[in-house]
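User: quick one, fold this
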Amino acid sequence: MPLINSTTLITSLSILHLTIAFYLLTAPTKIVHHNLVVLIGASMGLPPPPTCLLPTTTSPALPLAASLLSLLSISDLAAAALPTEIYSYYFAAQAPVRIIFFFALEGWIYASKPRGALYGEGPGQGAASTGLAFAWGFVELVSWFWIYVTLRDERREMLVKVQEKRAREEERTRG
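Assistant:
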């Protein structure tokens, strides 16, 4: 039995996405200077964003990023509102894809950091290899792995209940 069910985890992650989208539009420097972002970035040896790339309220990329996070959040909330049998299959298919994506993103960010294996190997790699990008990907990776494990536990419990119900019905029809 999972400590926190998958619906709660997905809803919490979706609300986190909406919160980040809000802060991207209203106060983006709060995200850059958040303690978790600074801690994860520093522990992995990743530099903070260069001053020319610090998010400002006039940056045209911020509304796009906020819109994409909002879309992701709202679509996940809508899918989590479906009946349990349906959303568990949907997110059981989504979680491994997202885990693989964020694992690859984390590897690329880490390898393209200064003194990393891929540093300077392409346009814009140094700009994306920051503590902010790594912290976001790391939180997503851990969250989706937790959701995936929880979904597997819930599915196993659901199958056991269905088998017990079928066994009781079969005993009633025999007796």
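User: anything notable?
Assistant: Residues 14 and 76 are 7 Å apart (CA to CA).
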